[in-house]
Amino acid sequence: MANQKPLKFAVIGCGMLARSQHIPNIAASDKADLYMCCDLDDDALAECRETHGAQTVTHDYKEAVHNTNVDAICLATTEKLRLPVIAEAVKAGKPVYCEKPLARSLEEMYEIQALVNEAGTPFCVGHNRRSSPAMLYAHNVFRKHMTDPQPCPWRFEREADKRPDVEGDGTASIVVRINDDWHSWKSWVFDPQQAPHGPMLFEMTHFTDMCNWFLASEPTEAVAVETSMLNHSVIVRYAGGELATLTMTGNGTFGYPKELYEMFGNAGTVVVDHMLEVRTAGVADTPPRKLFPMVNDRHPGVGTEGGLYGWLAKKNRACEEAAEAGDPSLIFTAEPDKGHAHAIDRFIDEIHGTGPVVCGVDAAVAATRVAFAAIRSAKEGRRVALSEI
Questions:
Q1: Parallel, antiparallel, or unpaired for β 123-125 and 96-98?
Q2: Are 116 and 83 in contact (CB under 8 A)?
Q3: Which of 42, 134, 265, 307 qualifies as a cystine partner to 292, CB 3.0-4.6 A?
Q4: What are φ and ψ of residue 137, in 5° steps?
Q5: Rounded to whole angstroms, how far apart are CA atoms 154 and 211?
Q6: Please, what is the angle between helix 106-119 and helix 361-380, to 10°?
Q7: Are 147 and 281 members of one domain?
Q8: Residue 49 contacts residue 34 (beta carbons within 8 Å)
Q9: In this predicted structure, what is the pLDDT of residue 195?
Q10: pLDDT of residue 3
Q11: Do 139 and 274 sit in the same domain of this protein?
């Protein structure tokens, strides 16, 4: 990699997510250069140029794709403007990092999948949690435990030799809890033209992807219940008998951790709490608790113990500051590392052939199909087989 020149990126779609994550991450990376930004909003483009150092800007995505200096595309538009940009980029042979979900409809999603697979151009979908340090560690620990479990010397064996053979013995399961606050959502979320399926698509694909990744099995059916767009629960069955249970609320609070993942199987447990700490039990040669650093910490002297309780102390202090200043943006401090910057760098390694596929189009399609099965299940009040999607 020392001999590789940084890849020149064009970022197409410079909204809040791009300007808070992708653009500064590309600008800060030793493996990338922020060459061009493309958006219809002149104020956003001015920020890209003046704050983040974009070398040039444009309103025309075709100009960005076909610029001979551009090596790769970071696509962060809304879903309604994904397919035409991807089609143009893969035709030009440009690698694409695309925000999730891939599309608003199954038809568009499958068209994108076909275009990408036919072109063979490197393509990464922004399921960034696959690149979170805590998630990568937990995934490695859990998959090793599932494929090569070691006997647990303290397991309570009540019946010992009399124990019967039980179907499903050792089979993995995962429970995911998502706590969100809908007051923080942007207005397009409520526009049926922009987001016809609500958070059951634009948020749920993050978590169905995590379930697919950790369980390493083919999803076969989903059943879901929702009460408006703010509360829903989903159960997913997998080909090997694995189960995923996901519960998401939009009536929560940013004063508490957003995500909790609990993986079980082969008499072992791996828990990821807000990507701040990973706890294990019954897993051989693994520490019971491992902490991970936070990013953008304004209160290094608060919560010095780190992990979940350290984060809560920092968050409480930030909430006090926000209330005192009348500025809610001050609540954002000491956030977990969700993998955004690592995903870009790992994708660059993939492009160069020095790293694995980060999250290819087929994996993203699999996660999105589960989300669409859940959407149909909630709407029709029945189990939905993935073969229907």
A1: parallel
A2: no
A3: 134
A4: -65, -50
A5: 29
A6: 170
A7: yes
A8: no
A9: 78
A10: 66
A11: yes
126: closest CA among 234, 18, 257?
Answer: 18
Residue 2 pLDDT: 52
Locate 241 and state its tokens.
């008998």
Strand pairing class (173-179; 72-75): unpaired
pLDDT at position 262: 98
Q: Which residue segment(s) compose the domain that 109 sits in?
A: 7-121
Paired tokens of 38: 């493309």
Show the tokens assigned to 74: 């970071």
Sort residue 64 into left (φ over 0), alpha (ψ -120 to 50) or beta: alpha
User: Is 218 domain-assigned?
Assistant: yes
Reference 244, options 276, 272, 210; nearest CA is: 210
- Report the amino acid identity of residue 344: I
Provide the pLDDT for residue 1.
47
The span from the CA of 224 to the CA of 356, in Å, is 33
Return averaged pLDDT per consecutive 10 residues of the chain, 389 residues in all.
82 93 96 97 95 96 96 93 95 96 90 96 96 98 97 88 89 98 88 81 91 98 94 97 97 96 98 98 96 95 97 97 96 95 97 96 96 95 96
